[in-house]
Design a protein that fits this description.
By secondary structure, the protein is an all-beta fold. About 0% of the residues lie in helices and about 50% in strands. A hairpin with a 7-residue loop joins strand 3 (about 45-50) and strand 4. The model is unreliable at about 1-10 (pLDDT under 50).
Amino acid sequence: SLVAILSACASDGASGPAAPTNLAVSPLGAGAHLTWKDNSSDESEFVIMRLEQSVDTAPVELARVPFNGTSFHDEPITAGRTYVYQIVAINENGESESNEATFGAP
C-alpha cells in the first residue's frame, strides 16, 4: 500500500473521512485521467499521490483536489512508463486511502 503523507491526529475520538473507492485511471489526450467515488461528506480535500515505477522510491504528492472532487487529469506523463495512483481523503481528524490503480502510459 502506498504510504499516507499525513498522520492522523484524532485526539477527540473523531475519525478521518470515509475512504474514496473505485479509483480508475484511463488514457485521455497526453495524460492519465483519474476518477473515483467520494464516499465521505466531511473531507476537506483529496490528495493525489503518484509513484512512477523504476523512478520514484516513494509516492509523491501530485496535487490536491477540493472537497467533493471526483476526478483529476495528470498530464504530461511519459509514454511507456508505469504509474501507480492513490487518492487520500483528508479532514482535520485524519485521512483515508483509496485503492491503488496502476496505469501503463501508452
